[in-house]
Amino acid sequence: MKAQKDTLEVMIARIDDICGQARSYEKKYAEEIAKVEPSFRESALNLVHYLALRNNDIRDLQKELGYSGLASLSKVEGHVLASLCATRKMLKILTGKKSRETADIPVTIKKGVKLLNNHTKALFGSKSKGRKTRIMVTLPREASSDYKLVYELIRNGINVARINCAHDDEEIWEKIIINIRKAEASLGRTCKIIMDLGGPKLRTGPMMPGPKVAHLIPPKDEMGRVIKPSLVWISTENSLPPAKADAFIPASAKWISEIKKGDEIQYKDARGKKCTLKVIAREGKAAWAHSYDSAYITPGLEINLIKHDVQAQKTDHIGDLTSIEQTIILRKGDNLILHKDTTPGEPAHYNESGKLTRLPHISCTLPEVFKDLKAGEPILFDDGKIEGIIKEVTDEKLHVTITFARESGSKLRADKGINLPESNLSVSGLTEKDKKDLHFIIQHADAINLSFVNGPEDVINLLSELKRIKATIGIILKIETRKGFQYLPEILLTAMRTYPVGVMIARGDMVIECGWKYMAKIQYEILRLCEAAHIPNIYATQVLEGLAKKGMPSRAEITDAASSQQAECVMLNKGPYIIPAIRMLDKILRNTEKYQDKQATLLPILDTKLE
Q1: Residues of the chain where predicted confidence (pLDDT) is lower than 50
Q2: Is 540 left (phi over 0), alpha (psi -120 to 50) or beta?
């Protein structure tokens, strides 16, 4: 009995020590807390209390509390002092002594929940009936001209529409927003609008244009039999093909005017192979055809129209074609030059005897990073599909040795992302384009997404620019780098100088920066830190990606979508099956919320029915 009482006393002393640390942290962060917006003052205090708590390893304390039949501080984030004091009180009762809890607690347990709910509503709007986790969708360009698409997105349950300012322009954005507002009015619902600032983008530069050729590749089965023909658009040179076309064959208007459904077009491709196109339809002054042949089509090739209803043949020649994009093929051990000047990139060049005469090279969009780089640092291309080590840094270029690529060779193209996970980059802040876009955003959107937030100074830069243009708007911080994660507490306290604020866990870039093995840890810690600050979180990148893009989710995606309930908002990316993806996510969240309240398990009546 004495041993048990001693254990209880040890636990009380441990909690007293943590509470003392929490109070000392208030003094440590007093300057930052004094600057926060009044709506966030209690939340800022709770955040620093949480930082004090997490300065300790309390796993043994949690286990002992569980053995004593008490709550194990596993859901303490939103109300740190209140939970510690409540636990201390119960421990005192178990020792047979009276509790003398007189602590000034800024956030009670109920108030912690209320603060998070209020801040979430301020940023993302009201929750959907029967579902508290909001759904955000990135809108495609088609949303500017397809009102029905926007209407269906909102009708099926999205709460927030995301527009990425890295794409399109103000005219397109405004048309999208008009469709959103129109659908809101028609459905009697609200849909918040969040717009991404592009930010400084580190990407590969342009490539030298390749040959002018169209390559027809109809898909085949394991036996080499064509299972689906290529869809070919036949029109004049100045008539671009619809997005669904696999290839475009330009010809003269007079020759095309003779084409009818059922006709055939015969030709020899660039290799001399005899090929046939079967005309399946006319569309205005153009035509559609099927190709069951693999073919290489180049400008000037002779094409013969074979009429199905008369014995006639009309001849024309293929017009000008767009140059195909060149790529750099890289394998492990290869060398690559990344240069400052804007000379278009080229693949490696070999002489007739196969000897390498010129290394592959390509430029980058932010050459100012070169001054921050050092030999020995890793560099990643195209979402981490290609990895390398910087071997040498000069004023004008980097020499990179490839350390990881596909065995058959990975293709590096123009406009692909470059990541420098271990480099201390000084490039940050708003670009001139961002500052221009801000004027549009503050007039039309409810919040701004700030990309690549690496430290408090990035937040200060945005707040300063908003102050300069006398604007107030919600801010969402995209945490997608190693530095952004490391400085997250300071970033949150700085962002809390305005209201409302949110955080997006940009898992795609984060996993490239930090590695797959750390992703679960990072995601967990960001969610917990934001809950401590009562700042709503967006769970983003590749949620139900297979369903949205291909119409079929993987089992892992369903589990991931269920885990997303821990955040206040879940983001889906655009795709041809986005409506089914929204419906699926809505059902998953509604079902999950019966069993889980963030990380706390709930136990409704056992239900084995599947409705």
Answers
A1: none
A2: beta
